[in-house]
Amino acid sequence: MPDQEVQLYLAASLDGYLARPDGSVDWLKPFQGADYGPYAYEAFYAGVGSLVMGRHTYEQARGSGPWPYSGKPTAVLTRDYVLFPPPPPEVVFRRDDPAAVCSDLMSQAPGHVWLVGGGRVARSFLDAELVDRIILHVMPLLLGDGIPLFLSSEQGAALQLRDSRHFENGVVLLDYQVRR
């Protein structure tokens, strides 16, 4: 499907952290429910066909109540298949390369592939030049420590700004196209 993209849609603190050191994203609660127009989570999620995440992100999602991505094919990239509780039916655990995962997901469902998280997964997709778009919500707070937005790599990525917006609650949105 030619209009499918791999999109990294995420939020980070101003000092560049995705989560606290323990993986918690509780600091995002004050910003939930805000009107981010076409960049609001609901509008974004409506265009998502499938998801990719790492094991830690998967465990975080599983530990916070019912599976939030019901009905959407989800690949969890991990080297450890012994995960409990048993996964929802749409979740598969994968060990192969990002290109194979991406190709399989795009063939399974129309819509964009959302790189939900972790840093290693995002970096592996960026290094494989599979990410088409990065939509980043920069939150107006400093965490001081935590899980970094991007892990280091010898390979960079050139970005072209598509849009930027600021909101009354202090959030700044940056929408980049990844240039090849």
Describe the structure.
- With 180 residues, the chain is of the alpha/beta class.
- The chain is globular, with a radius of gyration of 16 Å.
- It has one domain (6-179): Dihydrofolate Reductase, subunit A (3-Layer(aba) Sandwich), CATH 3.40.430.10.
- It is built from four helices and ten strands, in the order ββαβαββαβαββββ.
- A hairpin with a 5-residue loop joins β9 and β10.
- It starts with 5 loop residues before the first strand and ends with a strand.
- It is 19% helix and 32% strand.
- The strands form two sheets. Strands 5-4-3-6-1-7-10-9 form an eight-stranded mixed sheet.
Which key terms come to mind for this protein?
180 residues; alpha/beta; 8-stranded mixed beta sheet; globular; Dihydrofolate Reductase, subunit A
Produce the secondary structure layout:
Blueprint: E1 6-13, E2 17-19, H1 41-46, E3 48-54, H2 55-62, E4 74-77, E5 91-94, H3 98-108, E6 112-117, H4 119-127, E7 133-139, E8 147-148, E9 158-166, E10 172-179
Parallel strand pairs: 1-6, 1-7, 3-4, 3-6, 4-5
Antiparallel strand pairs: 2-8, 7-10, 9-10
